[in-house]
Structure formats: structure tokens, C-alpha cells
């Protein structure tokens, strides 16, 4: 029996990633931690889901085509100021530290470098 975060079954998390395999992996990981999960392949779909599903948290990839995770964070802070945001990235050409540092500076609550473990994600989603 795995330990679940207190109240996790009531917390709904939106995972956002343009890579279908990573999106499925994130969805499975978040669900495996005991959270309710919805997923979106892009920022526009994510905002629709967050509003309709009343999500309390989001896990967002930073490097995506069209609207990226940085754009998501900036808009989320205006529209959903209480949304807990976990920014994730492998870093791309700029490197993870630079990309995730920017995300944290713009309002991400936590940042994780890909690949990360389920326990790291659980801490990021539940830490005050």
C-alpha cells in the first residue's frame, strides 16, 4: 500500500505537455500518487480544462510549440492566482536551470528537471 498525500483524492491536477508519450506518463504518475488528473496537449486546452474542471494544480512543460509553459505561468498568475504550478523541463538548448529559473521567477511554485521521480513530483504538488 502506497502512502497518499493527505486530501490528494480531492485535489485535481491538470498536466500539460505537447509530447503524447510524456503526457500519458505524467497522467499515470499523477494518478498513481492519488490525485484526480486531467490532461491537455497545449496551453489553450489546459485553460479550458482548468476552468471547467476546477483544477487546484497544474504540471506544465515549459518548452512547447505555439504557447509555451512560460506563457501559461504568466496567464495563470493573472487568471487563476491560487493555482499551484509545477514547471517541468529537460531544458532544451538553454539548459534546464535557465528555463526553470525563468519559470520560478514568473510564478511557478516548484520546478522539476526531467526526468524526475514520482516522489519528487508528489513533494512538488503537496509542499506548502
Protein architecture, described:
The chain is α/β, with parallel strands linked by helices and 128 residues long. The chain has a single domain, classed as Response regulator (Rossmann fold, 3-Layer(aba) Sandwich), CATH 3.40.50. 43% of the residues lie in helices and 20% in strands. It has 5 helices and 5 strands; from the N terminus they run βαβαβαβαβα. Strands 2-1-3-4-5 form a 5-stranded parallel β-sheet, with helices on both faces. α1 links the parallel β1 and β2. It is globular, with a radius of gyration of 13 Å.
Helix-strand layout with pairing:
Layout: E1 12-16, H1 20-32, E2 36-40, H2 43-53, E3 57-61, H3 69-79, E4 84-89, H4 96-106, E5 110-113, H5 118-126
Parallel strand pairs: 1-2, 1-3, 3-4, 4-5
Radius of gyration: 13 Å
CATH architecture identity: 3-Layer(aba) Sandwich
Which strand-content bin applies to the residues?
Answer: 15-25%
Order of helices and strands: EHEHEHEHEH
Shape, please? Answer: globular
Helix content: 40-55%
Key features of this structure:
disordered N terminus; Rossmann fold; 5 strands; 128 residues; single chain
Summarize the structure.
With 128 residues, this protein is of the alpha/beta class. It has helices spanning 20-32, 43-53, 69-79, 96-106, 118-126, and strands spanning 12-16, 36-40, 57-61, 84-89, 110-113. Strands 2-1-3-4-5 form a 5-stranded parallel β-sheet, sandwiched between helices.
